[in-house]
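Dissemination and training. As part of the outreach component of the grant, students in the summer workshop were shown how a complex can be specified as a set of sequence lines and then modelled as a single object. The example used during the hands-on session is reproduced here so that future cohorts can follow it. Participants entered these lines:
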Amino acid sequence: MLIGHFTEQPWQDDTSGLMGTQSTDLGISNSFYNPAVGASLYNRYLDEKLYAEEMGFDAFMLNEHHSTPFCMQGVTNIGAAILARQTKKAKIIILGNVLPIWDDPLWLAEQLSMIDMISYGRLVSGFVRGGGRESFAHNAPPHFNRERFEEAHDFIIKAWTEPGPWRWEGKHYQYRYVNPWARPLQQPHPQIWIPSTVSVETVKWTAEHRYPLVLLATKLEPTRDAFQLYHDTAKENGYKSGTQNLAYLFKVHVDETEEKADEVARKYLSGVSNPFLAGNEGQINPAIMSLPGHTSRTSNRLQAASFGPAGRFGTNRRPYEDQVEDLTIISGTPKTVLPKIRHVLEYLRPGSIFFWDGDGAMTHEDQMRSLRLMGEEVIPAVREMGKELELFSSFEVDPRTGEKIETSTEVAS
Amino acid sequence: MAVNASEPVEQELVLANTNVKLKKAGSGAPLLILHSEMGNADWLKYQQELSKTHTVYMLSHPGCQGSDQPDWIMNMRDLAGWYLQAIEELDITPVDVIGLSFGGWIAAEMAVMSPHSFKKMVLVGAAGVKPEQGEIFDIFGVTPQVFQEKAFFDPSNTPEYQIVCPDELTEELALEWEYARESTCRVSWKPYMYYPGLPNLLSRLKTMETLIIWGSEDAIVPLNSGEIYNRSIKGSKLEIIKQCGHRPEIEKAEEFLKLVTDFL
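and obtained this result:
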């Protein structure tokens, strides 16, 4: 089992008037942005990652969003590059680079190779299509989103694996000289993981490529449906998938007392609006979320329930209590969160998990207490559960073949 | 086949290697109308009136509802080239053309690529030219309903507004809009809704009679774009309709029809 840590790295500034509001996605001017606050927050979030490694986390999950306060990290490769040098053991799992917004994927291939080498082979390179928000914020053509994703993916794999120089004359990318003077340390290339919020197309594509699939804080039932779709697709493609092919991100906050845990976990909902945080999604701009052609005419989603009853086009503002009830939010003392985590593990059987913590309006102190308690009591116990339930990550069992990997077991030890 | 002026006949046919939908109505000299970024759903007063004196041809652009989207059409050059072949295969060239908004951009590009394909050209609130003052409104950043409302100066005093943007949206119209926006997006995303070289290319048009019609209150394509069209096309004429938004053919149908009928 691989246990990782995640936060969206939200903007937090009590003087901005943005905390706890239902603000509109991509509707906030950066006149509210105070770089002095930004400097402090960027360093805070890096400090928390360093401490997470010290507390025994196996991995950092990093992401990026654009032009929005709910995620400060507009360039995930910068966070990854810093952690590559400043940490020693934890996997650096980027979920992920938004391929369709890159006009020059060769540059991305070089950056990722550098991160892999500087980290001595700890990079996991996730790729995403991105939402309408990302296309809009970087003026990437939404109608070619999937085509650009697939072509950039194919190009990067080739740039990592096939000696140059060679040419690439594709539909969306053209190069007359591909010969990057940087190659990934992990051979043939770093693992590729694909995060999703239960898009059928993405789940199938991921299974066809035998890449681990990461479900992002979706509700348990549609998540299990998506995992089953993955297993079915794997079978159709002639291989047997298992826990090593599946990962799940969910909200877990641990504190010293039940009262304290309850008080702090409510802060998931009281930061700046985040479309991915049920209860404080803010107002979605439907035009931008569904830019023309961004989603193919034939695509569908497993269940609109992925973000609650209103699906992706609305806000459901589910109360905190409801989310605690259906385990969308798990908070408590180590003793009370462990049975809930166990239920998630038994129900979904992922080989890798990420605790989403330190988000919303949670303070640095809130996060550090939780990380300490996780290190002292939660992570060791969850590791035992993983062994007992035979939940193996993609570093223990090869997701392409189902064969045990003998050399990398130190991750789980 | 008898063609009734008030009701078009819809045909499915293959033009330029693509399955497309054609609306055809009226009799007389052929008149090609290139629809806007919102599709080819309606048959409104301006179309009914024009089909009393002309055989009106309105193709649903490639990718719009009823027409296939050729994979290779990736920019305006591709689309204009496709359209030139399509109207040659319809055997209506040289033909009078009216281009509405995004359709005006297509017409202008076709004209500079192949001036002999058109007789007279009418551009109405045409996209395609970068304004020196103001910006072309980003239709993809808002929902279709918000766009429709912005495209009219006074929707409440536009009799046909409820047809083009009904309070109760039907699934059929929602799909028409979605497909039209998608196919428009495909060729207009970046640079958004213009081609930088078009004003210079338009200087090729030395003998084509051109009428440019603009709403004085156009909130989608600034009137300044119309002025640039006017100074770039030799012998063109710019007519501005007062108290009118981006869709003069709907909002001020009578004034629009008078200008067009006198010109054609």
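The first strand of chain B starts at residue 9 and ends at 15. Students were then asked to discuss how this feature might be tested experimentally.
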